[in-house]
């Protein structure tokens, strides 16, 4: 009896200890469920409010006692997209720089691989606290999972000459990317206390998060903060406007808002700054979006990868099989026209590679925006570090009657093995597909190899489809034709 009581006492003590972790700012108390401890709503930078609006992230003030970390922090201010699986019901605030940690072994010395996720949403919406990003099931594979918020829309990307002068030669404009760097710096300082290995960090993300991953790979400001990267549906062959263009858009907004100086701009109500910006409203007259600032972003991702700026970083990159297939045909025509315009004189050759005008119109929006960029980024990085290419084409059984392929962002719940949070009732086959994807991702984080053949001159990739997974050629005629057209345009 005494032995049983003693064992129970040790068990309870161990559980209590597992729920408390000491960071460089103070002690946190989290929660444990099914063998995984979670710590939520951890501030990784000071609230970017008042004089810190449009300012580089500043250190969090320390606290005494134990801070409760059982619940999420605020979402960043945004105009949420109706029906988006990444939505939450959390309050929105400029005070939103929080991160979340899930760990199966919350103690120093465990040295588990670390996976840091950067959420998508076009840099204007999204949350690191979305239900589909719950890290419990991924962490149960023996990794530490981190998600976080970063400033969005005009709070995250805004430049004026006055802000550039205030930065004094430091980075300016891309405040959201500075937040991403601050979160990674927090991980480097603190993740060992949660059982993670700061020398074995993998960053991964989808859509804007995937583009952030590839941008950080080639950024001098991110050196030493991670060793491996997974970019899902991140595009990556576009050029961001330069700082001068960003400043011009910032001045246009200041004039539009009637704010003559930085003090007046920083005093504007949050809703006026936000201005309804989201994926359907780019406010192009007054909003630049992310920019080539010369400090964090020094050029185009494809060119910097080709130049070896991410040398040695292990890289998984891919896209979905039918990224924009969810868009009704009448609206898809605009995307076809835009891609055709960018292809210029090469559009006819690309159309021929598809075999028919119908196939071109159906697939060029997705292939130009996502499929070809993934292929081309893989081809460039493969010369400088181990690289793997994939295409995700699994469609949940309940949706196969309406979806011909995997559309944009449908892969995210699979990456986290978190289908239950995506709505509906997943089938056994759906759950098996989620286990497969999450196993690949966790294996890459732990070993540096996701479990399929590397990208090579034969351009092999892994295709995950309704029939399982198999190797397939990546350099199909239409993708090669698009790549050739874009490479030629870049050289001019």
List keywords for this structure.
globular; 492 residues; 3-stranded mixed sheet; Rossmann fold; 36% helix; disordered N terminus
Describe this structure in words.
An eleven-stranded mixed sheet has the order 3-4-8-10-9-11-12-13-14-15-16, sandwiched between helices. The protein has a three-stranded mixed sheet with strand order 1-2-5. Helix content is about 35%, strand content about 15%. It has a single domain (about 20-240, about 295-490), classed as 3-Layer(aba) Sandwich (Rossmann fold). With about 500 residues, the protein is α/β, with parallel strands linked by helices. It has 16 helices and 16 strands. The protein is globular and about 65 Å long.
Low-pLDDT segments:
1-18
Structural class: alpha/beta
Q: Radius of gyration in whole Å, from Cα?
A: 23 Å
- Quickly count the domains: 1
Distance between the termini: 82 Å
**Helix proportion:** 25-40%
- Care to count the β-strands? 16
The DSSP helix count reads: 16
- Average pLDDT: 95
CATH class: Alpha Beta
Strand order of the largest sheet: 3-4-8-10-9-11-12-13-14-15-16
Tell me what the CATH architecture is: 3-Layer(aba) Sandwich
Global outline: globular
- Portion in strands: 15-25%
Tell me the CATH superfamily: Alpha/Beta hydrolase fold, catalytic domain
Largest sheet, strands/sense/barrel = 11 strands, mixed
**CATH fold group:** Rossmann fold
């Amino acid at each position: 009896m005494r032995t049983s009581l003693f064992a129970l006492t040790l068990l309870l003590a161990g559980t209590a200890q597992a729920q408390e972790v000491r960071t460089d700012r103070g002690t946190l108390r989290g929660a444990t469920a099914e063998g995984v401890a979670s710590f939520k709503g951890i501030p990784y930078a000071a609230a970017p409010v008042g004089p810190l609006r449009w300012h580089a992230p500043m250190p969090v003030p320390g606290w005494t006692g134990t801070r409760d970390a059982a619940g999420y922090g605020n979402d960043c201010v945004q105009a949420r997209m109706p029906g988006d699986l990444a939505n939450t019901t959390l309050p929105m605030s400029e005070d939103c720089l929080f991160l979340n940690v899930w760990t199966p072994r919350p103690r120093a010395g465990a040295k588990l691989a670390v996976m840091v996720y950067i959420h998508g949403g076009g840099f204007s919406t999204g949350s690191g606290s979305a239900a589909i990003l719950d890290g419990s099931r991924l962490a149960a594979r023996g990794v530490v999972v981190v998600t976080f918020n970063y400033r969005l829309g005009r709070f995250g990307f805004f430049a004026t000459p006055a802000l550039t002068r205030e930065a004094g030669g430091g980075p300016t404009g891309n405040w959201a990317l500075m937040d991403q760097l601050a979160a990674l710096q927090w991980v480097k300082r603190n993740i060992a206390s949660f059982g993670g290995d700061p020398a074995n960090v993998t960053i991964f993300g989808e859509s804007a998060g995937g583009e952030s991953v590839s941008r950080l790979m080639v950024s001098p400001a991110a050196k030493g903060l991670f060793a491996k990267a997974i970019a899902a549906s991140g595009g990556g062959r576009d050029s961001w406007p330069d700082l001068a263009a960003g400043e011009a858009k910032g001045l246009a907004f200041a004039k539009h808002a009637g704010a003559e100086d930085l003090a007046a701009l920083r005093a504007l109500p949050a809703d006026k700054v936000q201005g309804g910006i989201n994926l359907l409203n780019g406010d192009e007259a007054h909003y630049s979006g992310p920019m080539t600032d010369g400090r964090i972003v020094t050029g185009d991702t494809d060119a910097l990868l080709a130049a070896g700026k991410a040398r040695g970083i292990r890289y998984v990159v891919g896209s979905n099989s039918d990224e924009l297939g969810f868009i009704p045909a009448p609206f898809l025509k605009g995307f076809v026209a835009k891609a055709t315009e960018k292809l210029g004189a090469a559009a006819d050759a690309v159309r021929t590679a598809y075999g028919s005008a119908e196939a071109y119109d159906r697939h060029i929006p997705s292939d130009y925006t996502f499929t070809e960029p993934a292929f081309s980024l893989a081809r460039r990085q493969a010369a400088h570090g181990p690289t793997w290419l994939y295409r995700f084409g699994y469609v949940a059984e309940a949706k196969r009657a309406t979806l011909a392929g995997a559309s944009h962002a449908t892969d995210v719940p699979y990456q986290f093995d978190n289908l239950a949070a995506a709505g509906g009732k997943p089938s056994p086959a759906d759950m098996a597909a989620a286990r497969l994807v999450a196993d690949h991702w966790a294996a890459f984080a732990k070993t540096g190899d996701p479990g399929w053949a590397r990208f090579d001159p034969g351009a092999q990739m892994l295709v995950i489809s309704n029939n399982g997974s198999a190797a397939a050629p990546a350099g199909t005629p239409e993708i090669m034709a698009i790549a050739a057209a874009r490479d030629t345009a870049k050289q001019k």
